[in-house]
Amino acid sequence: xxxxxxxxxxxxxxxxxxxxxxxxxxxxxxxxxxxxxxxxxxxxxxxxxxxxxxxxxxxxxxxxxxxxxxxxxxxxxxxxxxxxxxxxxxxxxxxxxxxxxxxxxxxxxxxxxxxxxxxxxxxxxxxxxxxxxxxxxxxxxxxxxxxxxxxxxxxxxxxxxxxxxxxxxxxxxxxxxxxxxxxxxxxxxxxxxxxxxxxxxxxxxxxxxxxxxxxxxxxxxxxxxxxxxxx
Length: 231
Hints:
Layout: E1 11-14, E2 21-24, H1 29-41, H2 44-58, H3 70-84, E3 88-94, E4 102-108, E5 113-115, E6 123-127, E7 130-134, H4 139-145, H5 151-158, E8 160-164, E9 169-171, H6 177-185, H7 189-201, E10 204-212, E11 219-225
Antiparallel strand pairs: 1-2, 3-4, 5-10, 6-7, 7-8, 8-9, 10-11
Helix pairs in contact: 1-2, 2-3, 2-4
């Protein structure tokens, strides 16, 4: 005789990038096991791949973690974690007034938001008539570059969607890899900083927490930013 099947609760979230409603369920033991195995492996790449698989399973295969922006992935995983293990978690935060004292703070993961920056744009003008359209990093780019010393450069390169000048627009698929590398390396410091600004201002999961240094009595605000900050 077949064993009974256990039912899971269903919840709903909204993807920050496009406002799409998505149903999801909490982690099951098989997902927790997958995450523990990845954490035991000790590499960021293994953990990213595990998170991708967990999101695929827990959203009933409706969210493809390979195609959504990385900030969507971070937000979805935090919501899954909140409904699976508990909405509150305790994390260690360094007090900013002395830069060394660590205190435990409680964070409600269900209240973490994906925050937009009004100054953010994916259109970067390098100089008169030449510019770049950027696309958001996805998990494949992050997973491939995590363990490389030139990861930041490669992530920037991988997020270029097109380059235009006064006469032409060249799509990423039509670019020669060496020519693209040479193009980026020929930028001035200020031009390269404009590209970096795309990443520093793009939507991120954030939450502000209050901390009090037990040694100095100073109260401070700390911004937790990015999925790794909440674990």
